[in-house]
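Honest question from a wet-lab person: if I give you the sequences of every part of a complex, can you actually get the arrangement of the whole thing, not just the pieces? Trying it with mine:
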Amino acid sequence: MASYRRKLLAWAAVAASLVLLLAGCGSSGGSVAGSQPRDGGTLIVGQYQEVTQFDPNRQYSWETWRIDRNIYETLVDEDLSSPTGVPKIVPKLATSWTVSPDATTYTFQLRQGVKFSDGTPFNAQAAQFNVRRFTDPAFQYYDKVSASTMSLVYGDLASFKVLGDYTVQYVFKHPFLDFLRQIPNSGNAVSGFFSPDALKKHGQDGLADHPVGTGPFTFAERVRGDHTTLVRNQDYWGPRPHLDKVIFKPIGDDQSRVAALQTGAVDLISRVPPDSVSTLEKGGFSVPENRGVPQIIYYSYNFANPYLQDKRVRQAIIEAVDRKQLAANIYKGYAEPATSILNQGNEAHDASAVDYPYDPDAAKKLLTDAGYRPGQVKFTILSDTTGQPTAEYIQQALQKIGIDASVQSFEWITYGTRSANLKPDDGLFLGEWGYVAANWVQIAHAYSVGKRDGDKYSDTSAATVQAINAAAYNSDPAKANQLWQAAAQAWAKDATVFPLLSFNRYYAVSSRVGGFVWPQQNHYDLAKVWVAS
Amino acid sequence: MVRRILWRLGGLVPLLFVISLLVFFIAQAGPADPVQDVQSQRMSAEQIAQIRAAYGLDLPAWQQYLNWVRDMVTHGGGISLSVRSPVSGIVFPAFVNTLILIAGATVLTVVLGVAIGFVSGIRHGRLIDRIVMLFVQVGSNLPIYWFGLIIIWLTAVRLKWLPAGGMHDLRGDGGTGDLLAHLIAPAFAASLVSMLIIARFVRAAVIESEQSDYIRTYRSQGFGRAAILGKHIGRNILAPIVNITGLTIGSVLTGVVFVETIFSWPGIGSVLLNAIAGADYPVIQSGILVVATSFVLVNLVTDVVLDLLNPRLRHGAA
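Yes, you can. This is the full assembly:
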């Protein structure tokens, strides 16, 4: 008995020391990165998705663009050095430009002396090669895939002219006020210039793995599923970036990504889970706040679902959900409710715009008017896994007005395929997008409604299309915002899109990193970022 | 012996043929359309048809199967539909990474499983046995996903002993030591369930042997405990351990997908997950075929080792 007790005591001691050990290794606040910028060093970025591909004309996704924009440069860029305010358009590969009064013709003076990282010159011919690749079916290097992706911005291009070795001109069929804004804007339809030699050498499919541009960093390697490495471009025409190397690593699991930051394996992560914000801040990490980033989470409707062909049902869904509470509770205040498709950070954003206010009683009445008994309307909500809490919140809200929704969530890439193959039982599916440029209204309408035959199912859709066209073909900058706001309001009446929220926390940064700014854009500039030694 | 092995190898041919057929048609029967992806939403029906034709997706299924077999034989698979680069360059490097993880997990499974089982077995009924068995019971029922996160939290975030994930330190130059440091936690997570199966098995075998008549005879003749344990009990349970290890590698293979996700291990699991998501047939088919083939090979090796360990088979049939 005595020996038994002694052993028990020994085990208890082991257990107790283990607990003490764990407690002893508690939070350790990091030291602040040197206040002086330092040249050299490696920044490691933990991304929340595997990136698509490094062919600017074929790539999609923000995480891909956050890498790509360091390799490829565009004619104009945005000044991303301030965390607030719509970023200013600044020269990049073009030193100056003129826009015709009717906003159809854009003439650019190209920067001289710029070379692609393979040594070939950037000039009007190289620019023409790029543009013909995705606009000219007669061109030897025409690429159908690029053409369809790039049509988002260049669908209305009437002609591209070389006016000199360093002068080029884009002529559009209609006024296109947002062209300059679209050039550096997006994760889709990237206007960055690749080296024509690289395309000739590696082929249409090969450019993705052999990206060659003029940017401050060049591509070193990509190990799929593991990392992509960029190194500083020694012959860069512009100011030297501080960093020598940037490594991007996909870490899909939220908790693993946070752990990688906490242990110093990575220096910067995107898509911080709301639950981790305060833990990270207490641990000495910076989780910057920004309430003006042009990003919006929204649901689109599946118009093949008979219930959702009825405008009253769609409107009831919007009225059933308290988006303020969703942002405050599910996202712990690290998100803002969105009540218009014109996202925060958009040039035409109007904070007072509301599609339909929260009113569950009115929602119930709409369903009754539409002839449905409680429990009769059923559909599936499709979401990615990060959006599952949102989907469940909406499921509960819909239940209260008598709609029986189920939730299916998938990892992001699976979700992309699943939502491109909708089934009749599907009702709502998640979208994550948003722009600085106000013609986002037109883009969003095309993707959520136009291409899905949604216009058939609203008695006011003719007015919506008219309002959108009026704004899209307007050539007067002074009227632009007002016209886009009117278009968004007209569209809201159709209840064919369901805006939900925008994040106000997104990145978390280690204290080793200096100079990181989260601008009002969906990407960041690494030019002024440095790391402590 | 050699003839037996050759015979078994010959038997693999029809087996792999059946597997390849199954793999091909199961992937084909999947619900998603490889051309309907995010990009294609902007394409016209005509453009989609052109892409379908370019990748041979408009051919009858049997012809697609033959093309795939030809691609597999000539250069290890065709062109990935979503990534648009050769399948072999996607599947094989990832699979090598998975093999490293499985090798680590197998070593831990055998070493720790046998050690736990042995200690528990020879201390049968004592306090340490009860505590160990409690851990074994609880551990066997832990969801691997959750367990992996706990390991990361404990070993990386709290104790800072091990890295939080990945296969190597992106700041360093790599090297074997670095790889091993990154391997321990995921290998442990992947091995947990099979390790505990082996532990339970070894424990039962040790108890049974210790109580058997011949051991009692040895003991009565004054043989030392260590000699009995090592030479007789050890040898007696060796064959079943090999057998079970072979079988558990299969379960490690299935669990490894979750482990790779949590520990950001760049293996076949994440490749397959993405490929299934993107309905990337060539990658799914080649990936599963590689995994299935290695499964069959592991079984073959297990059988051969068992034969070698069993004197009756070694001298008899051949």
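Two things worth pointing out. The mean pLDDT of chain B is 81. Chain B has two domains: 1-75, 90-309.
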